[in-house]
Amino acid sequence: MQANIVVLPGDGIGPEVTAAALSVLRTVARRYGHEFAFHEHDIGGIAIDKHGDPLPAATLAACQKADAVLLGAVGGPKWSDPNARIRPEQGLLALRKGLGLFANLRPVRPHPAALNASPIKPHLLTGVDIMVVRELTGGIYFGDKTRSADSASDLCSYSVDEIERVVRSAFRLARQRRGYLVSVDKANVLETSRLWRDVTARIGRDEFADVRLEHVLVDAMAMHLLSKPREYDVIVTENMFGDILTDEASMLAGSLGLLPSASLGDGKIGVYEPIHGSAPDIAGKGIANPYATILSCAMLLRHSLGLYDEADCIERAVDGALNAHAFTADLSSSGQHLSTDAAAQAVIEQMQAHCYVAE
Ligand code: NAD
Ligand code: IPM
Ligand code: MN
């Protein structure tokens, strides 16, 4: 197949991990006989520097026309002045909003070979397989913001429609998996959470009676995620809770550098990106873990291009690389570790053994 993929490397380690992931995608294209055209555009801090805008119109237009978008990360100290008027992160938020990507899928599956990288006891981690569905275009991120000399405010609001569509996505996923959905909120305090809980309960009752639904408060969930992660299947939650809980959940896998994501809406277009940021502390050193971005490419192939064998190929090759202890610094306890590019190369080598092309 032919596909147009927009690549937004962004800032910090973004260009390093996307370059590594593209080497994997190019190999997939060669093996399976596809033609992927990659179109690179600016977003984030680099776009502020070059165009004075964290999401230039040309970038958004290219994404709207593409079959899928692969993104690295945005942000960094250069653009982080608390009084800055324009920030890299605004570009990412505008992209998600502009493409209508309301559901952010963040799978968490600790790998058996990397359990030592996690601060959690290994016996709690075996068999953990969680899918977090984070609402991505509403809530406190997008409400009105005010700032005066002696006060500031961020409005958190949700409409019934916004809740219904993301919760339905989560129910559908739960139905395909183990039939268990946990909805996370703060309904003991927040009005938006009480609406969230009402809507979720109604949709469960009316449309997904076969899925077991539970409501859990976000503070308790932060604890349960670490004490009994194996119990969970699909977790759905609003924008900010989902942001925070998934960075926490990355510690089950052992590193932020292992968690991919897919941001989806009603159409085929999706943005695929690691859940981590631009990691300014390691940027430019060539040591960032590329697996989260490589696994995001697998999600891209599956969700936007419908290339299921190719997606499985990447996931099996990453499994193989981890089994072979192809560890970057964040995963290694021995002091020995691979560079970003060498880790991507290890994945490519594993394709030989793990990917079969139907004749
Ligand atoms: P971060 O995710 O960039 O880094 C947190 C820690 O995890 C750092 O110690 C970093 O070195 C490590 N880390 C992250 N990714 C890694 C990888 N692939 N391999 C190895 N180690 C990795 O979070 P932060 O430092 O709080 O934020 C830095 C900047 O990134 C901020 O400007 C923030 O807004 C931005 N950010 C962007 C995104 C995004 O573009 N989607 C996501 C999160 C944060
Ligand atoms: C993420 C990031 C972003 C978010 C920031 C950079 C706007 O933390 O993708 O998880 O909070 O959504
Ligand atoms: Mn985040």
Short description:
Belongs to the isocitrate and isopropylmalate dehydrogenases family. LeuB type 1 subfamily. The protein has twelve helices and twelve strands.
Query: How many β-strand runs?
Result: 12
Topology order in helix (H) and strand (E) letters = EHEHHEHEHEEEHEHEHEHEEHHH
Secondary-structure class: alpha/beta
From the N-terminal CA to the C-terminal CA, the straight-line distance is 16 Å
Features:
IsoPropMal-DH-like_dom, alpha/beta, globular, 3-isopropylmalate dehydrogenase, Isopropylmalate Dehydrogenase, magnesium, metal-binding, about 350 residues, 2 domains, binds manganese (II) ion
Explained architecture:
The radius of gyration is 20 Å and the shape is globular. It folds into two domains: 1-102 and 259-359, Isopropylmalate Dehydrogenase, CATH 3.40.718.10; 119-253, Isopropylmalate Dehydrogenase (3-Layer(aba) Sandwich). The model has no long low-confidence stretch (mean pLDDT 97). It is of the alpha/beta class and 359 residues long. It has helices spanning 14-32, 45-51, 57-65, 88-98, 122-125, 160-176, 191-207, 218-227, 239-253, 291-303, 308-323, 340-354, and strands at 2-10, 35-40, 68-73, 103-108, 130-135, 145-148, 151-154, 180-185, 212-217, 234-237, 262-264, 270-272. Catalyzes the oxidation of 3-carboxy-2-hydroxy-4-methylpentanoate (3-isopropylmalate) to 3-carboxy-4-methyl-2-oxopentanoate. The product decarboxylates to 4-methyl-2 oxopentanoate. Pathway: Amino-acid biosynthesis; L-leucine biosynthesis; L-leucine from 3-methyl-2-oxobutanoate: step 3/4. Mg(2+) binds at residues 219, 243, 247. The record marks 141, 186 as: Important for catalysis.
